[in-house]
Every structure is written in structure tokens, then in C-alpha cells.
Recover the amino acids of this structure.
């Protein structure tokens, strides 16, 4: 396994008042749904917003900072992630508050729990979050959507901390949402978001959520070690249909496989490495481009170093 130089003493010297957990060479494989990948050079779990801002303000500007959430849409490469990996959690980033038609959610809140909170409050328009296996932070970054709804449809504003430790608020327009993308600055770590629903019938909303759940269970390999939808849908097409037409259903590389149930999903079938999974995805992209002329783009986020890079 990759072992990085320990940065924690230098970080504590620069920010002696940190209250969150700071761990050197923490394995990340257990934090991802694929269950693969190397360690974080440093994993930081801040106690609250002030703690996160203090770290970012004090950190050497040359030290990379990477954010991970629930790990459902993520490949951590086998060589690990250099610098500081931030993972938000706990009450400070994991609560949902209701005020009339508005919901304020921390970015560590699972999308499914946001949908449930909205339903319990009789707020319609957020049931689609039931079909997204990520967190609010990821939804903000990629304009996550499912079953006819997208984050952009219900977001009012988002709050974050930039690389210098400054608190910032972004309006809906400033988020710059497009399909599975936000134009918000890459260095901002989002802490919370304000959503707006519309009054609805709780029973009808819960029935819609049940429909979303049933559709997901029937069509997706949710009980496998997977990372959700692998590729973005090209304009006017479905990624899974292009993958299927290229003969990639069931294709394997090492311990990784294209799901036979839904071929826009890759699965860790049998002790796959991150390199197996990413290599399989690239082979699928090659075959789709060869057979249809379409260039598929990754929806899954890939971070860190290949083993060869980490050992260089």
C-alpha cells in the first residue's frame, strides 16, 4: 500500500486550534461504494464550519485539497490521494431544517434523507432525490438528477468555504448549473444548501418516492459494489444503449465488470482494483467511440494517483 509522508505535524503547527480528526495515511477504500483505492495522505473531518475554515486558511497553498462525500460516485485510484482529503460529517453538516416551503440541508445529508424530510413536511418537488445514492454536496457539484428532476429545479442558494477560508454564498444563478455540472469554483467546499419545495400531499409524495425506489431496484445493480451511472448521457442518446450496442454488456477487465443488469454501471465483481475499474471504463469508451462515433464522458469522479505515479 502507498505510504505518504506524514503531513499532520506541519498542519497542526500551522493550525494548532483544529478540533476535527486529522489522520495520516487513512485508507479510503472503505469510504467508497466500489471498495477500492489507496489512502488519503491526510484525512480531515472538521468539527464544524469554523474548523474547516481554520484549516483552509492555515494550510500551505501548495497542499492539494480534495473533498469526498458518501463515495457512491467515486473511484479512488490505487496510489491514493496526495494532500488533504476533507470528509464532512456529524451534526454540523448532517442536519435538515424546515422553514415553511424551504429546507436547509448540510452537505453531508444523503439525498435520500433530504427527499424523506421533504415528504414528511408535505413539500413536493424533491422526491427525485430518493433515486440518487449520494449526498447534498455531490448533488451541488454535479447538478444531480433522476426520474425527471434535477438539483437545479429546487435549489435556492448554497453556502461554502473557499481555499482561503472565506465563507461564501452562491445564488442559484451563480451555481451555473448545466447537465451533470456546476460552474461554481472548484476550490469551494460546500457546507449547506437551501432548497424550496411546494406544498403537496404527503401520501402522494411518499407514493412517488416508492415508485422511484421500485424503479431503481428493478433496473439497477444496487446491491453490488458499484459507483452508480458511469457515463453521462450524450445529447439525444442514452449511454447504456450505446454501451450495449458496442457489445460491452458483461465485459470484464480483471475483477471489474460491466453490469449485465444495467450496462451503464460498472461493478467490482471479484477483488477488482481501481485500475481494473477505470481501465474497464476506458475500454468501454473506446469501443463505443469505435462503433458509434460517440465520445462518452465520465459521470463518476476519479481522484488520486495510479500506483505507478505514487511510487514515482
Amino acid at each position: 500500500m502507498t505510504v505518504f509522508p506524514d503531513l499532520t505535524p506541519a498542519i497542526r503547527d500551522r493550525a494548532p486550534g483544529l478540533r476535527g480528526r486529522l489522520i495520516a495515511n487513512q485508507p479510503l477504500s472503505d469510504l467508497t461504494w466500489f471498495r477500492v483505492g489507496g489512502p488519503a495522505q491526510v484525512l480531515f473531518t472538521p468539527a464544524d464550519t469554523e474548523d474547516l475554515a481554520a484549516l483552509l486558511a492555515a494550510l500551505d497553498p501548495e497542499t492539494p485539497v480534495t473533498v469526498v462525500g458518501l463515495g457512491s460516485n467515486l473511484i479512488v485510484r490505487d496510489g491514493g490521494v496526495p494532500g488533504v482529503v476533507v470528509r464532512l460529517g456529524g451534526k454540523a453538516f448532517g442536519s435538515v431544517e424546515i422553514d415553511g416551503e424551504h429546507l436547509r440541508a448540510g452537505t453531508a445529508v444523503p439525498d435520500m434523507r433530504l427527499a424523506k424530510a421533504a415528504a414528511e413536511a408535505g413539500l413536493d418537488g424533491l422526491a427525485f432525490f430518493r433515486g440518487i445514492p449520494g449526498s447534498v454536496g455531490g448533488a451541488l457539484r454535479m447538478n444531480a438528477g433522476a426520474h425527471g428532476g434535477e438539483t437545479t429545479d429546487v435549489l435556492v442558494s448554497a453556502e461554502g468555504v473557499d481555499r482561503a477560508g472565506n465563507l461564501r454564498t452562491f445564488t442559484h444563478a451563480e451555481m451555473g448549473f448545466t447537465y451533470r455540472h456546476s460552474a461554481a469554483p472548484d476550490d469551494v467546499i460546500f457546507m449547506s444548501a437551501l432548497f424550496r419545495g411546494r406544498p403537496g400531499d404527503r401520501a402522494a409524495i411518499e407514493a412517488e418516492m416508492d415508485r422511484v425506489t421500485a424503479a431503481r431496484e428493478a433496473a439497477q445493480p444496487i446491491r453490488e459494489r458499484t459507483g452508480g451511472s458511469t457515463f453521462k448521457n450524450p445529447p439525444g442518446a442514452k449511454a447504456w444503449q450505446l454501451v450495449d450496442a458496442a457489445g460491452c454488456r458483461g465485459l470484464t477487465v480483471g475483477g471489474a465488470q460491466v453490469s449485465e443488469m444495467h450496462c451503464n454501471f460498472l461493478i467490482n465483481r471479484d477483488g477488482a482494483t481501481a485500475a481494473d475499474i477505470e481501465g474497464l471504463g476506458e475500454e468501454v469508451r473506446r469501443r463505443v467511440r469505435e462503433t458509434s462515433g460517440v465520445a462518452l464522458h465520465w459521470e463518476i469522479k476519479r481522484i488520486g494517483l495510479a500506483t505507478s505515479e505514487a511510487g514515482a
The chain has three domains: 8-87, 96-219, 239-296. The mean pLDDT is 95. The longest helix spans residues 274-292. The longest strand covers residues 189-196.
